[in-house]
Design goal:
The complex is a heterodimer of chains A (about 190) and B (about 800).
Chain A lengths: L12 H29 L4 H19 L6 H25 L6 E4 L7 E4 L1 H17 L1 H12 L4 H8 L3 H27 L1
Antiparallel strand pairs in A: 1-2
Helix pairs in contact in A: 1-2, 1-3, 3-4, 3-5, 4-5, 4-7, 5-7, 6-7
Chain B lengths: L5 H15 L3 H14 L4 H17 L5 E3 L10 E2 L2 E10 L2 E8 L7 E7 L5 H16 L9 E6 L5 E6 L4 E2 H7 L4 H20 L12 E3 L5 E3 L4 H4 L12 H11 L9 H4 L6 H17 L11 H10 L5 H5 L6 H9 L5 H8 L2 H9 L11 H13 L9 H12 L2 H26 L1 H6 L1 H15 L12 H18 L4 H17 L3 H19 L4 H16 L3 H19 L4 H16 L3 H18 L5 H16 L3 H18 L5 H16 L3 H19 L4 H16 L3 H18 L5 H16 L3 H15 L24 H6 L8
Antiparallel strand pairs in B: 2-3, 3-4, 4-5, 5-7, 6-7, 8-9, 9-10
Helix pairs in contact in B: 1-3, 2-3, 6-10, 6-16, 10-15, 15-16, 17-18, 18-21, 20-22, 21-22, 22-23, 22-24, 23-24, 24-25, 24-26, 25-26, 26-27, 27-28, 28-29, 28-30, 29-30, 30-31, 30-32, 31-32, 32-33, 33-34, 34-35
The chains are: A mainly alpha (about 190), B alpha+beta (about 800).
């Protein structure tokens, strides 16, 4: 799961455990905040998610002090958690036969909405799992943008890189996911 | 094409980067050309690029995935109001149009649902109490706060008078109001703010969006005091990390720093002077049609720098910008119902002066009250003399900045500030000893601001050229701090530490060491022997001692700083890593690889945890560790670490930063160690260009690169090139480090060997004598990377490589 650290040569077992513990804390906290937010404000807009993540950051940074000082790293983990929450929700709804239709909200002015099928989101989730192993940085960009609603500008600021770098990463990640999903559906069809 | 395997993807990845930067129509020819370079990848790449277009067309991954919607909030009841429709949404919450529904009254209101977590019943109580105070503020030009409360579901909300109108900026432009009409509207704004100040309420968030003008021209201010209401609770900041506090502040401000004052950005006290500043920005915008920060508003970083440091253009110059095309200027003036020349004339003089006074960086220099500002505006309208005086120095400084470079002006501002501050301090100390003591905390704030300005003269922070001027200005400032702040040891210690560091970065090690020594004495006197600031100064001193080649002293200072930091901050604090990194380099210089590795590994572990895997300081530790590996001959390990470090440096610091150049330099040394001399030669040439551009041609880092180029050239048999390069290295080292430095000695002996090989014993002999004499004082020491970079890491005896290149030369150990 913690592929983000796999390329680092000196990751020790201890660091791995720290990172896992951190993930669990974060997951619990975000889960709590997301439930509260849903109960309170209705649907999570893209804006709602980013606000939520800031709030989670404060809440956890306050508790664990220096552990989460790095904002970018925190947002990376948080985005993965967010993706997990949404995909789990799709799975649960589908198994409960409550209709797992998800809305994909466009952030542009017309606010056009597209309805995605649960299958589409689940296949995106599976392909992202693959990508996270091969190229964790690209997977994170997709998570930050598609599952959390951060803009390229915000992600660039978070990572301290140019907007163009983020956009290129996103285009590459999209290529990977697109190919992976095409390949998976071809296999199923046979 | 199937799902891409990991190794396949890694092979394709760099080519995709290339292709995606091309316009779509250029990708076909690019693929065709690629048949030469990488024929095996062409098919996969074509598939990927076609897939990219399909994905784009299908809108694949556009937008944001959301959970299914819950019922809308419309119709929901909040207090005595029912939500009708959403009016706006922003970082701080959403605003709804609402109808009163409790049967007693009828009426519309705006309900603001705040994105705000209140800390339990105490927080809710405080929110209601503050709301009650604001509700008492009644003025015809202030939108009334009707109610503040928390709904049954725990949602904090505000009910506000609903106001219909345009923002003042838009209203002025739509109606093409002339300067006089704009000033009259502005006076209405001042009237409302002045009333609120008299009732002890500061707005804190004055901006055009909060000033609405109705169709009839009636001005109403929104959100009075609400910024404070949604600010965090008292005491919340204690024990939180600086980042957490900064982030909260950011959220409280709803991410619009354009109208923030310098003291708000610096986290200083917010007073009525803060509103005066924001009113100054508003007036500037109304009169000139643009923001005082000019084009710097585009990025938060440049905006903040501009607000804190830069004197804005005069409104008259901003309103009629002669660098713009004539038709644009005419168009712009038309928004004021006039011509460019008339607009400029209307603003030149009093209005320029009034705006400049309201926009002073120091709250104490602004108008003392909103009423004083209003009085000057009224006088200007009546064409009577105003109270504010033109600030010629400020404008002159600005023109200087336009002609020259920002680093120079930053240093000038710094020197001016130091002079003003020391003058203020010495005068006040004589008069009011006790009060000065009470204000010691304020002095620390002042010096922090100075420090940030000082470090702007530092080549590692900005690189804009003009270094001799910066240095001359620094010298003046340093002298004053040394002489005039003797009675203020805390302030003196801090300023001397910062200045010492800046001198070090400029490569002036002797001056740096002298200032830091003095800073240590003042700091110990002011703070006691065991204090974080003393530890900082000790650390800085240790670094400079190492720079000067005083290894024993450096080890002592750094070990002491490390122990003190561990005691005061705990073993895994980021500052502990900083000292560990420096100590690791000193151990490495002394040839103790085990201790060096231990220190660098510990530093790396701390930075990964506290700063993150891809933080720029983590990259520094990766490079440090790589250097030890390289010297131990583990070239593959070293290269892997350096490549990782390089990618982080490029990402976090950019191509032009010295650290990026230094990492490339280290990679070049690996290329050389692998025997690829041609490759290493080209890489080192590139590094020299980069470091000269980033640090200036006389920096020791540049000398180290020349030295290594000389070594490679010599191994390639180009003795002529090697001699020239080494002479450059020697000249730089002699100037920047002095003739007693070990690096100077190493370069001298190497150059002597080259001269000897060329048969020039006459040139070789004096260099050899001088070099050997210095080397004899510390024969085991080889100064290492980053500090000097000039690590001779092939066989350690100087001159050996020359024997390899030409077997005729005797080796002088």
């Amino acid at each position: 799961m913690m592929t983000a650290t796999a390329e680092m040569p000196e990751t020790t077992v201890d660091q791995q455990q720290d990172a896992d513990a951190l993930f669990v804390t974060l997951y619990t906290e975000l889960h709590r905040l997301a439930r509260r937010e849903l109960a309170r404000r209705g649907p999570l807009g893209g804006l709602g998610v980013t606000t939520l993540l800031h709030e989670a950051y404060l809440s956890i940074a306050g508790k664990d002090g220096a552990m989460f000082v790095d904002h970018a790293r925190f947002m990376g983990y948080a985005a993965r958690v967010m993706r997990g929450l949404i995909i789990d929700d799709v799975r649960r709804r589908r198994s409960e036969k409550r209709g797992g239709q998800f809305h994909i909200t466009s952030l542009d002015a017309e606010r056009a909405e597209r309805i995605a099928s649960p299958e589409e989101l689940l296949s995106i989730g599976d392909a992202l799992d693959e990508l996270a192993v091969i190229d964790p940085s690209l997977a994170e960009i997709i998570e930050l943008k598609f599952f959390c609603g951060f803009s390229f500008v915000e992600i660039a600021a978070m990572r301290g890189v140019s907007e163009r770098t983020v956009q290129r990463g996103w285009e590459k990640g999209r290529i990977y996911l697109h190919q992976a999903i095409a390949a998976a559906s071809a296999t199923t069809a046979q | 094409m199937g799902s891409l395997a990991a190794d396949r993807w890694r092979a394709l990845s760099p080519y995709l980067d290339e292709a995606l930067d091309l316009p779509v129509e250029a990708r076909g020819p690019w693929l065709a050309a690629l048949r030469e370079r990488a024929p095996e990848l062409v098919d996969d790449l074509r598939g990927c690029l076609a897939g990219a277009l399909d994905a784009e067309d299908a809108g694949f991954l556009d937008g944001v995935a959301l959970p299914p919607p819950s019922p809308s909030l419309a119709g929901q009841r909040i207090g005595a109001y029912r939500l009708v429709s959403i009016i706006g949404e922003g970082g701080s919450g959403s605003v709804w149009l609402a109808d009163r529904c409790d049967g007693h009254f009828r009426g519309r209101a705006a309900v603001k649902l705040l994105n705000l977590a209140l800390a339990g019943p105490a927080g809710e109580e405080r929110f209601r109490r503050e709301g009650t105070i604001l509700a008492r503020l009644r003025h015809p030009r202030i939108a009334h706060l009707i109610d503040a409360g928390v709904s049954l579901t725990g949602q904090p909300y505000l009910v506000l008078e609903h106001v219909d109108g345009e923002t003042i900026e838009r209203y002025c432009d739509i109606h093409a109001l002339d300067v006089e009409a704009r000033l009259r509207l502005f006076l209405d704004v001042l009237d409302a703010v002045s009333f609120a100040h008299a009732n002890l309420t500061v707005h804190r968030d004055i901006k055009p969006a909060n000033v609405l003008v109705s169709a009839e021209g009636h001005v109403t201010l929104l959100d009075f005091g609400i910024a404070k209401l949604i600010d965090t609770e008292p005491g919340w900041h204690e024990g939180r990390s600086a980042e957490a506090v900064a982030l909260t502040r950011e959220i409280g401000r709803a991410l619009t720093p354009e109208y923030a004052s310098p003291e708000q950005l610096a986290g200083g006290a917010v007073t009525t002077a803060t509103d005066v500043y924001a009113l100054g920005v508003l007036l500037y915008v109304l009169l000139s049609g643009r923001h005082p920060a000019g084009s710097a508003v585009r990025s938060p970083a440049t905006l903040i720098r501009s607000i804190v440091e830069e004197v804005p253009l005069r409104p008259s110059d901003a309103a009629d910008d002669t660098s713009h095309a004539w038709d644009l200027r005419v168009q712009h003036a038309a928004r004021f119902g006039t011509t460019p020349a008339r607009l400029r004339r209307a603003l030149t003089g009093d209005l320029d002066t009034i705006v400049a006074r309201a926009l002073k960086k120091d709250p104490a220099e602004r108008y003392g009250s909103v009423e004083a500002l209003a009085e000057d505006v009224r006088r200007a309208l009546r064409q009577e003399p105003i109270s504010a005086r033109p600030d010629t120095l400020g404008y002159r400084t600005l023109r200087f900045a336009q002609r020259h470079v920002t680093a120079v002006v930053t240093a000038m501002t710094m020197v001016a500030l130091v002079s003003v501050m020391t003058a203020v301090y010495t005068t006040r100390l004589a008069a009011e000893r006790d009060r000065a003591r009470r204000e010691a905390a304020k002095a620390v704030k002042v010096s922090e601001m100075l420090m940030s300005m000082l470090t702007s003269a530092d080549p590692y922070t900005v690189r804009t050229g003009g270094e001799p001027t910066v240095r001359a200005l620094l010298d003046g400032g340093a002298a004053r701090v040394q002489q005039e702040l003797v009675a203020e040891p805390e302030l003196q210690a801090e300023l001397l530490t910062t200045m010492g560091r800046t001198y070090r970065r400029l490569g002036q090690f002797d001056k740096a060491a002298a200032l830091l020594d003095q800073a240590l004495t003042s700091g110990t006197a002011a703070f006691g022997p065991e204090h974080v600031r003393v530890a900082q100064t000790l650390h800085d001193l240790g670094v400079v001692q190492a720079d000067r080649g005083q290894w024993a002293a450096a080890t002592r200072s750094l070990e002491e700083a490390l122990a003190m930091r561990r005691r005061l901050l705990g073993a895994s604090h980021a500052d502990v890593a900083v000292t560990l990194a420096e100590l690791g380099r000193v151990y490495q210089d002394l040839g103790d690889a085990d201790l060096a590795i231990e220190a660098h590994r510990e530093a790396l572990a701390i930075r990964r945890t506290t700063l993150g895997e891809r933080h720029r300081e983590t990259a520094v530790s990766l490079s440090d560790l790589a250097s030890v590996h390289r010297l131990a001959g583990h070239l593959d390990d070293a290269e892997r670490l350096l490549r990782l470090s390089l990618s982080i440096n490029r990402e976090t610091r950019g191509e032009r930063h010295p650290n990026t150049a230094v990492t490339l330099h280290d990679l070049a040394l690996i290329t050389a160690a692998r025997g690829d001399l041609r490759g290493a030669h080209a890489q080192l040439r590139d590094v020299i260009t980069r470091t000269e551009a980033a640090l200036g041609p006389r920096h020791p880092v540049v000398a180290a690169a020349w030295h290594n180029l000389a070594r490679v050239a010599s191994l390639q048999g180009s003795r002529q090139e090697a001699t020239v390069a080494l002479q450059r290295a020697l000249d730089i080292a002699g100037g920047a480090l002095g003739h007693q430095h070990q690096l100077y000695a190493i370069y001298a002996i190497d150059l002597a060997t080259l001269h000897a090989a060329a048969g020039r014993e006459d040139l070789a002999a004096p260099l050899l004598t001088e070099g050997r004499h210095v080397r004899a004082q510390a024969p085991g020491v080889v100064p290492s990377r980053r500090r000097s970079l000039g690590r001779v890491d092939m066989p350690p005896a100087p001159g050996v490589y020359v024997t390899r290149a030409s077997h005729r030369v005797p080796v002088h150990p």
